Every structure is written in structure tokens, then in C-alpha cells.
Amino acid sequence: MGKPKVVLGVSGGIAAYKACELLRRLTESGHDVRVVPTDSALHFVGAATWSALSGHAVSTEVWDDVHEVPHVRIGQQADLVVVAPATADMLAKAAHGLADDLLTNTLLTARCPVVFAPAMHTEMWEHPATQENVATLRRRGALVIEPAVGRLTGVDTGKGRLPDPAEIFEVCRRVLARGVTAPDLVGRHVVVSAGGTREPLDPVRFLGNRSSGKQGYALARTAAARGARVTLIAANTGLPAPAGVEVVPVGTAVQLREAVLKAAADADAVVMAAAVADFRPAAYAAGKIKKKDGEDPEPVVLIRNPDILAEISADRARVGQVVVGFAAETDDVLANGRTKLRRKGCDLLIVNEVGERLTFGSEENEAVVLGADGSETPVPHGPKEALAEIVWDLVADRLE
Q1: DSSP code per residue over 176-189
Q2: Cα separation of 174 and 183, whole Å?
Q3: 53-111 pLDDT tens trace
Q4: N vs C: which end of the chain shows fewer Cβ within 10 Å?
Q5: Is omega for the bond preceding 240 within 30 degrees of 0, making it cis?
Q6: Which is the catalytic residue, given 209, 236, 305, 352?
């Protein structure tokens, strides 16, 4: 089998230079990439750069190499088309089926997954015309990533920034791995919690756990690659924001509960992957707790934290909402998992064994997904994104 064929479309925005990093990641990971820029894009990055980085000649015209019928062949032969950056003009042309250059012709002939990574000023992104064009493209099966929030051209800041090229690459990799033309979570809003809560003892100390947040982030990235609108409630992770995902940072269990309840109000699914502390100190010391010579420290009195998973399972924000929990166990893993599933009242419970060198902080996971319907889905040892795909498969089945 040959290398996967990827078409990288580049439209005319200042973020075009960032597409060079995306191109490098695609080629270095074994993809055969053909860059198709617009004329406007060449004002920002020249054809020589694209040719040198991709190893293919670059053209914007349908009239070049006419005998090869490039305006048809490029799209027909592609395994994936990704447009980064996708300007407001490009989204409008794609939504209305215009074909006045090589890239727009390619979009019309492609029968593979198509990903758009928008980049523009906030006002342009929020304009009703752009939003209608995005809705049209998503309805037809294209994956339009939500732009990031941050510094734009000049001094402007807001939503409209091109997501980090490394994160766009992750979306492309997941879309190619699935091999499905249309994303199956389009129109769905999902909430994912990730990381580990920290319960402060004093200004410098806290009670915490070993959770890195990597499994939650894999779930968020995978859901975004499958077309969902994703809200990621992140507790103390320090990980880069996944492309197209709204990240809500929190610290404690109480803060996480507030953020989850707010985000879950209109969510189709909630996946509680965060490691939430069961207890917190009953009292917080305003100053650093000092050790005193010859004296033992005062005992730390703990009180229970709210049981967020049980709460959202018992009081669903909307009819048909799917709730998923995680059970990190150290012994009698399945028996404890089944007990927890009944006690929590969620639809699915991902049960895995944890320890100092198991799961926490690792790039891989092994689990069994227990269903309230009595189902049991083992997930063999492998990348955390593989577990994420299976979880969303099971959630999608229940949403249907």
C-alpha cells in the first residue's frame, strides 16, 4: 500500500505561514502531500517553499498540465483534503460550490474526508454569513474545526486564530485513521473532564493525584475529529489545547463541578475522565503551615467532595443525555467497577487498573467498558486514542 495522499489547501490569510509546520508534520509522518494554494496564499508564502517542502510542483491554475486534468484528478485521488488556513472567502466559495481556481475545483471533486481549519478576524468568524456557510459545510459532511482564541493580526485578540499546527495534524491523523468520509458526531455537543483536581491545604500545598489528563484530552481530540462541539473541563493538566475544543481550566473538585454542570446544560454526552478528589481539607490555612521543633503537626481533617458523576447521572440536564464515568481501581478491578456502575447510575463506566506505573501519565491504556445494559467491551492495551474511539463508538450508538 502506498503513502496516504493528502491535499493541503492553503488560502490567502496571514496564518498561511503556519501551514508550513503542518506540511512538515504530514510529510515526516509518511504522507504524500500535494499543496494547492490560492493566488492570494502565494502573497504570504511562495510557490518555491511549498514545492521544496512537499516534493511536488505547485500550481494555483486549472490550466497547468491540462493533459493530466489536475482540477479533477487531484481531488479524486486524495485520501484527505485539509484547508489550513481556511479564510472566510474560502468557506463561502466551498459552501456555494464555486470553482474558480485549482483548490475550489479540488474541493468539488474530492470524495474523501475534508477538513477546514478557519482563520480570520473575530468579526468575520461571527458574521451570520460565515456561520451559515460553516453550518452548510458541516451538514454536507465536512469537518470544520472551531478556530482558537488568541492574538490575531495586529493588536486584536479574540476567536479566529488558526489552531496550533500540531493539533490540526492530530485531527488529520485521526480522520485518516477512521477512514470514514462523514464525521458522526456533527451537531452534537459533548463535555469531557480531564486531569486531576487539587485541594489546597495552604497557599503552597495541596492534596492531589497522579492524573496527567492525557486520556481526557484524547477523548476531546477524538470527539472534535468526529465533528462534535467539545467543551473540555481541564483540571491542572498543562497540556496544549486540542484543535477546535473549548477549554475551561479548573483547579478543585468544587470548581470542576460548577463547570461541568454549566457545560452539561445543553450537552448530548458528558464523559467524566478527570480524577476527582474524594476528599478535601476541612480548613484552609491562609498562611503556609509551619513546622514546629519538637511538635507533631496537627491532623488534617478531611471532608467529602461532591460526587459529580452520580449527580449528573441522577439529574440529567436533557432527555437522552449519555453519561460516561471512569473507575480507576487497584484491585478487584471488574468487581469494583460493576459496583461503582450501579452506584453512580451512569450509562457507561470505563474501568482500568491504575498504579505508580500504570495508566497515569502513560501514553497507553487498557480497560473494560461496562454498560448499564449489561454489556462488557474489553479494550486491549494500546494508545489512549484507541480507547477514545471505542468510547465514542459506544456513545454514538446510544445517542442514536
Answers
A1: HHHT-SS-S-TT-E
A2: 11
A3: 999 988 876 656 554 545 578 888 999 999 999 999 999 999 999 999 999 999 999 99
A4: N
A5: no
A6: 209
Q: How many CB atoms lie within 10 A of CB 370?
A: 24
For 98, counting Cβ atoms within 10 Å of its Cβ (0-12 exposed, 13-18 middle, 19+ buried), the class is middle
Residues 6+ apart with CB under 8 A from 167: 221, 240, 241, 242, 243
pTM for this entry: 0.88
Could you give the dihedral angle defined by the CA atoms of residues 185, 188, 189 and 193, in that order, rounded to the nearest 10 degrees?
-30
- Please spell the DSSP secondary structure of 73-97, one letter per residue: HHHHH-SEEEEEEE-HHHHHHHHHT
How is 215-263 classified by DSSP, letter by letter? HHHHHHHHHHHTT-EEEEEEES--PPPPTTEEEEEE-SHHHHHHHHHHH
57 half-sphere exposure, CB direction, 13 A CA radius: 7
Tell me the pLDDT tens digit for each residue of 212-239: 999 999 999 999 999 999 999 999 998 9
**Which residue from 53, 42, 168, 71 is spatially nearest to 116, judged by alpha carbons?**
168
Q: What is the DSSP letter of 46?
A: -
Q: Cα 324 to the chain's mean position, in Å?
A: 17
Task: Evaluate whether 364 touches 152 at the Cβ level (below 8 Å).
Answer: no
Q: Name the strand (E) or helix (H) holding 199.
A: strand 199-202
For this structure, is 209 an active site residue? yes
Q: What mean pLDDT do residues 155-178 have?
A: 92
Q: Looking at 312-363, which runs of residues are DSSP E strands?
A: 322-329, 348-353
User: What SS3 state is found at 329?
Assistant: strand
The mean-pLDDT minimum among 47-61, 67-81, 310-324, 374-388 falls in: 67-81
Average pLDDT (315-328) is 93
Instruction: State how far the Cα of 195 lies from the Cα of 207, in Å rounded to an integer.
Output: 14
